[in-house]
Amino acid sequence: MMLDTAVLILNTDRPVKEPVAKLRGFIGNQFPDYSLLHHHVENGYLCTYPKVQYKIIEGTPFMVGIDEGAKVLKEISGDIKKLELGNSVYKVSSKQINEQEVEVVSQRVMYNYSFLTPWFALNQKNYAKFMEMKDWREKKLFLNNILVGNLLSMCKGLGIIVNSRLNVHSRLNEEIIEFKGIPFTGFTGEFTVNFRIPDFFGIGKNTSHGFGTVRRIKELEQ
């Protein structure tokens, strides 16, 4: 399936140090009429794969828009002059928007990916199961199955039908991540899967807040 995407890069006068939640909150408040930016609707909350995702990588904030989310980013990009994140104000010195039509599909070949931001893999239920496991090989298989489930959930949210079985191999490192001031267990590292994921798409929990951002490692393709 082909998707229209837009990556809006916001170059600021200095590196951004605040968490992604601040960026998401500011943009959502600046443009309240666009529900895709803040995921709030009249009767609750948009509970689906986010069509607009926020990222801060190495101090540079940017946003990823998918299909109608890409249209939203193109509409608002000209009105973003500064970022007010908590007590900090950043001047947006320049902007760049990259539009591309990308394919999201299962393949016969394996693709290699790295996590640019920590993968938020565990919810309350599977965290308890993960902590009960003593053997790292068992944990790795458990995480690989979660990763497959995350990819299938992403596809469901984007209206993509997966007709073949997904096979994942991973090389992950466990680390503590923080979300809304609360510590959680997250993972960084690399994985391979017979599925084509566009660069900068997020997988797992809280992708709209920048977690689980992936990029393809093309030089390692097999």
Keywords:
222 residues, alpha+beta, five-stranded antiparallel beta sheet, four-stranded antiparallel beta sheet, 5 helices, CRISPR-associated endonuclease Cas6, Cas6b_C, nuclease
What would a concise description of this structure say?
With 222 residues, the chain is α+β, with helices and mostly antiparallel strands.
Task: Characterise this structure.
The chain has helices spanning 20-30, 35-38, 68-76, 124-132, 136-158; strands at residues 2-12, 40-41, 44-45, 52-57, 60-66, 82-85, 88-103, 105-115, 168-179, 182-196, 214-216. The chain is of the alpha+beta class.
- Based on Cα principal axes, name the global outline: globular
Tell me about the biggest sheet? 5 strands, antiparallel
Average pLDDT value? 92
- Tally of contiguous helical segments: 5
Distance between the termini: 23 Å
Stretches where pLDDT is under 50 for at least 5 consecutive residues are none
Radius of gyration computed on alpha carbons: 18 Å
Helix content: 25-40%
Quote the beta fraction: 35-45%
Tally of strands: 11
Helices and strands in order:
Blueprint: E1 2-12, H1 20-30, H2 35-38, E2 40-41, E3 44-45, E4 52-57, E5 60-66, H3 68-76, E6 82-85, E7 88-103, E8 105-115, H4 124-132, H5 136-158, E9 168-179, E10 182-196, E11 214-216
Antiparallel strand pairs: 1-5, 1-7, 2-3, 4-5, 6-7, 8-10, 8-11, 9-10
